[in-house]
Amino acid sequence: MGYGSQLHIVQRLKVPEGISRRYDCPFCGGHNTLGVSNIAGTLSWHCFKASCHARGINEQGRSINGIKTALSRTSNDSKGVGIGADIPDLLSYSLHDEHVEWLKNVNSYEAYDKKLVKIAYAPRVERLLFSSNKGKGWIGRKFGKYGPKWLKFGDLTHLFACGTGKTGVLVEDAPSACAVGAIPEYTGLALLSTAMTVQHTLDLAPYENILVCLDPDASVKSLSITKRLYGIKPVRTVLIPDDLKYYTQPKIKEILK
């Protein structure tokens, strides 16, 4: 079915502004496989079923109420948190079995094994650290009993990057970036749960095109970043059912195609 016919059907769903919803796909009959978002004046849809090619984006503009809502918000886009705690002074590059098992569970071990990412254990803070910004910054995953699940160390003003591909895939977290970066044609780029900054935009310069693949709860953020990058880079939002770290390489390729 062509773009115009798809658009007509999706518009009839009347998704409210600022909302993302899942539907049974009217194009292939898949149960709860069609994701539709009406964010920031952009209507987008994507069916997650591999055999279905229903997808598209339509710049329809905001309603008057949508404009009022947008103007009433205080923008935090330029306030990314870039500097973390002091980098631990003792790092071990010999990983324990539990670390290796966890890396495999989040599909990050291959990137580590291929030396696409440097990972170390900081015993004093009981965290597994992913290196970023040429070792000037680290993002640490908790393996002890105390503290937040993730903690930042050093200078993380740049995107966390993993991979050598010419297509940059923008994700939220380091393991998802590693899961993507192990695929030769992609480089995983993680925001590390911060807002998109000017420096992040500059970090995208080496890549031929960008796929924005933030987690399902961040659809507003995904579309906002996509709109921001229009005219700078070929860019596309990909609505994902879950973080990419939970998928094998064949499934990631299928989602990103």
Word description of this protein:
The structure is a single chain. The protein is an alpha+beta fold. It has two domains: 3-72, no CATH class; 97-256, Dna Topoisomerase Vi A Subunit, Chain: A, domain 2, CATH 3.40.1360. It has eight helices and 13 strands. The strands form three sheets. It has a five-stranded mixed β-sheet.
What layout of secondary structure does this protein have?
Elements: H1 3-11, E1 19-23, E2 34-39, E3 42-47, E4 55-59, H2 64-72, H3 97-105, H4 109-113, E5 119-122, E6 127-132, E7 137-142, E8 150-154, E9 160-163, E10 167-171, H5 174-181, E11 186-190, H6 198-203, E12 209-212, H7 219-229, E13 235-237, H8 249-256
In short, what is this structure?
The chain has 257 residues and is an alpha+beta fold. It has helices at 3-11, 64-72, 97-105, 109-113, 174-181, 198-203, 219-229, 249-256, and strands at 19-23, 34-39, 42-47, 55-59, 119-122, 127-132, 137-142, 150-154, 160-163, 167-171, 186-190, 209-212, 235-237.
